Amino acid sequence: MVIGMQIKNYKLKIVKTLLMFIGILYLIFLYMDIFNIQIFIPTDIIKFISIILTFIISLLLEEYAINAKGIFLLQLGLFLTIFADLFLLVLNRKYILGIALFCIIQILYSIRYDSHRTKATIINFITIFLILIIIYITMEVDFIFVISIYYIICLLTSTIRGIRVCTDKLYPSPNRQMIALGMIFFLFCDINVGFFNIIGYMEPAGKYINLLHNISSISIWLFYLPSQVLLCISEHIFK
User: Fold this and answer.
1) Nearest to 233 by CA among 3, 41, 8, 16
2) Angle at Cα 232 formed by Cα 191 and Cα 27, nearest 5°?
3) What is the distance between the alpha carbons of residues 212 and 66, in angstroms, rounded to a whole number?
4) How far is CA 4 from CA 9, 56, 163, 165, 237, in A?
5) 239 is a domain residue
6) Range of the domain at 19
7) Does residue 35 belong to any structural domain of this protein?
8) Which of 77, 89, 96, 236 could form a cystine bridge with 108, CB 3.0-4.6 A?
């Protein structure tokens, strides 16, 4: 019993240390992005390390989880996030695969927030995907456009359900607030991803457009890492 308590306390200390370290990394890469500073470690690598650490924290908190299904879906989502960010952030290629992984992640989170309708949720997402595939075949649009639309649907669904977790008090406090805020930050992150890409395709149109482009670039990770940290600890039992 004593040894078990010591191990639990040790794990919680590691979690607190990792959270502090993530906070430091967050301030470092934001400072580098805002002032366009380069050091021996690129900001993308610093960001990627912070994502790996959030997954590790979820593993350390597994025995403190509210329920087994919730922590499994959360850990699986965070694990897939590592590979999605590997493609989109570090390697900066295989965009379709990266977006597809994020679609799966949002579906997992949707199931987590409404676990009583797992089968219906999966059927709905499959149906929507098949409809988009038919549109893709008949209209001959670029597939990355189709998968992006699908991701938007998946993201909005999981965000709405995450907010309902809070409003309907489906999780205890402060977990439900963490879920809602984490998903809202996730949404804000991807809104800025959209702005960044849209502006990137535009012809140079003056300093204000460039300023908006830079703001959206910084805002992506301004919201993204906090969203991951909040979701990472949202299954933890708080006393």
Assistant:
1) 16
2) 65
3) 41
4) 9, 20, 36, 32, 17
5) no
6) 2-232
7) yes
8) 77
**Nearest one of 107, 109, 105, 70 to 87, comparing CA atoms:** 105
Residue type, 99: I
Residues near 87 by Cβ (< 8 Å), separated by ≥ 6? Answer: 93, 94, 95, 97, 98, 101
Closest CA to 186 of 216, 157, 155: 155
* Residue 19 tokens, joined: 């959270």
- In terms of Cβ atoms closer than 10 Å to its own Cβ (0-12, 13-18, 19+), residue 16 is exposed
Q: Is the dihedral of CA 38, 40, 46, 48 positive or negative?
A: positive
- The DSSP element (H or E) to which 180 belongs, if any, is helix 175-201
| Encoded amino acid at 59, one letter | L
Residue 78 maps to a domain: yes
- Given a contact cutoff of 8 angstroms between Cβ atoms, the answer to whether 114 and 135 are in contact is no
Q: Which residues of 149-170 are buried (b: 16+ CB within 10 A; e: fewer)?
A: ebbebbbebbbebbbbbbeeeb
Q: Are the CB atoms for 203 and 28 separated by under 8 Å?
A: no
Give the tokens for residue 16.
């607190």
Bond preceding residue 172 cis, omega within 30 of 0? no
pLDDT digits (tens, 9 = 90+) for 184-199: 999 999 999 999 988 8
pLDDT in tens, 199-228: 877 766 667 788 888 999 999 999 999 999
Digit-coded pLDDT (tens) for 7-61: 677 889 999 999 999 999 999 999 999 999 998 899 999 999 999 999 999 999 9
Rg (CA), the chain: 19
